[in-house]
Known about the structure:
Layout: E1 2-5, H1 26-35, E2 39-42, H2 48-60, E3 67-68, E4 89-91, H3 102-111, H4 114-125, H5 131-138
Parallel strand pairs: 1-2, 1-4, 2-3
Amino acid sequence: MIIAVDFDGTIVEHEYPKIGKEKLFAFQTLKQLKAQGHTLLLWTYRAGKSLDEAVEYCKKNGIEFDAINASYPGELLDENTSRKVNADLFIDDRNIGGFLGWSKIWQIINAQSPEAQKRRSHQDMHTTNSLAGRLKRFFK
């Protein structure tokens, strides 16, 4: 999966243009997502020196993004190129409902993985067609 990740308010507390304190589990989660083979894009309002500082901060904490404010490395933006990156998921503090927290994000992403779907399918085979079983499947 291609995952676009905001910086301020998402990886770190929002202190722009300064770099805020790291959000709980941010780098641990990003490292695990990379280890699972996901493509990570840094998608942020930052530019110039403040962007360089954010990229360096992430590198010092063990995360190197596959692309920065772009859909792929080396993408050149011009008036014919959309600034919005091409991603399957966007992790941002400004989404509807606000920032969910990295542990919840981890759970959501891994619930979508083929392995998790296979586990749920196996569990569903063992659930009866009783009202309780149908309600359980409905509220998953």
